[in-house]
Amino acid sequence: MTKEIKSIILIDDDLAINYFHKRLFLKLELATSVLSYFNGSDALKGLIELDSTLTKNDLVFVFLDINMPGIDGWFFLEEFNKIQSTLNGDFKIFVLSSSVNSDDIEKAKDNINITNYFAKPLMIEGILALKDSYT
Q: Which of 18, 42, 106, 117 qualifies as a cystine partner to 36, CB 3.0-4.6 A?
């Protein structure tokens, strides 16, 4: 069965990056909604609220910055791991970071909830390849 990307969640404290990616996703008509959050705490609340409207066949792409003040991406992942088994939707988490720190990259590779690691900003070709991989 083919899955539809129901929603995209952007989690980044950089307003300009969120705006750029949101416009790009909407222009490419990748999902029916694109939600932006500027910290991990608000994103978790929004994810849980969104999940209440989803089914198992609904795919959600989450693009997560790992280095944010306050509740960072690593904490978000810890909390996501605690609730993952209760979620309705099929969430694919992609780290989207400006970090080229090898420790961050290795930590992301070791995390079972991270699907892939991308450098900011995403480019159209990469986005279309992601869509083709999952839909």
A: 18
Cis previous bond, 121, omega within 30: yes
DSSP the chain: ---EEEEEEEE-S-HHHHHHHHHHHHHTT--SEEEEESSHHHHHHHHHHHHTT--TTEEEEEEE-S--SSS-HHHHHHHHHHHGGG-SSEEEEEEEES---HHHHHHHHH-TTEEEEEESSP-HHHHHHHHHHH-
Structure confidence at residue 127 as a pLDDT band (50, 70, 90): confident
Is the distance from CB of 8 to CB of 25 less than 8 angstroms? yes
Q: Do residues 94 and 63 lie in contact, with contact meaning Cβ atoms separated by under 8 Å? A: yes
Please check whether residue 112 is in contact with residue 14, taking contact to mean a CB–CB distance below 8 angstroms: no
pLDDT of residue 2: 65
121 burial (CB, 10 Å; 0-12 / 13-18 / 19+) is middle
